[in-house]
Amino acid sequence: SDVKTYIGSAGQFTATAAQAISAGDAVAMDSTGKVGPIKQIQGLWNNTDGDRNYDFGAASEDEYVSEGFATAYDPDTDRHLIVWKNAAYDVWSVVVARNAGNADATFGTPVQIHNSTGTSDRAKGISCTYDTSADRFLVMYNVNDNSTAYNNTIKGRVATVTGGSTNSVAFGTVTTILDHGLIFGQMSPCTTYATSANRHVVVNRIYRLNSDSSVQDYEWSSLTVEVTGGGTNTPSAGTYAQVSSGNYGDAESESICWDETNDRFIAIHMDNNTDDWMHAVGSISGSTITWGAVAVFDNTNSSYSGAGSACIHDASTNRTAVFIS
Asked: In angstroms, rounded to a whole number, what is the distance separating the alpha carbons of residues 206 and 109?
């Protein structure tokens, strides 16, 4: 709009500030009529303008989102893939493109990953990572059979995102990563082993089941998954490995990151018997992970209820930051 529309004959007007403005700042107006420093108006996304609400327009997709979201970023197409499980135990995904220069985003058309037909195939425990070698996403999730636990499986699907004006995602064939097992928990921390081997690692409290649906074991464990790109677009299961026996842990507290400087994984975990925070370091060869001894690094927590963690490695300083709550 012509700024004279707002100034009027008095030569001044009143507006809401989008961000703090100092005397002498050059300012601009955003699409909502707020005024702020030019750099803020042009460069920030979803900051002072608040959250963005997006309605997918169909109950099958945006029915009450249960157990949160998982997301990863594709640097090749400059797109994010968001994955979630809804209250109907379906798994959905959508591609999101940040609109540079304004505080908004463009959403693609939602694509269903898993369609639950009843109590025998309910999805849980989602994760999403991006593989820079195969240029593909990997989405993993549990499929739970409420009546026969032995039928529980951990599934995986490889996704290819198209950018440009399309913002679409296509999924390969559903593949069983671990049969007769499940990841105990709402979210399944998963990291990408960023080499040409295309290995992904998920770590959590993993249940393995006997044919009579009794529990074989439920230890703090890991799974490796290899992603194949090209025309195949399939994941293949590698090795199950126990991180520690007896330290059963709280599944919601798990996190894992890759230390590219030392070529090692770091897994973070809370033991729900002692409420102690623990870590383990793992090395990978092919599809096999070998975990070192578990060690306590914090014993000041009073309860595992609501515990959570995150970790990230900084290659420039060769340090890993761990966040716990």
From this structure: 33
Length of the chain, please? 325
Provide the CB-side half-sphere exposure for 108 (13 A, CA). Answer: 24
pLDDT tens, residue by residue, 198-220: 788 888 888 899 999 999 988 88
Question: What does each C-alpha distance from 281 to 59, 238, 252, 298 come to in angstroms?
Answer: 43, 19, 19, 16
Cα–Cα dist 247/206, whole Å: 12
pTM for the model stands at 0.78
Q: What single-letter amino acid sits at 91?
A: V
Tokens coding 242? 């126990």
- How many C-beta atoms surround the C-beta of residue 94 within 10 A? 22
Residues facing 201 on adjacent strands? 191, 224
Q: Which residues contact 275 (CB under 8 A, 6 or more apart)?
A: 299, 301, 302, 303, 304
pLDDT in tens, 253-293: 888 999 988 989 999 988 878 889 999 999 988 888 999 99
Contact present, 254 and 247 (Cβ < 8 Å)? no
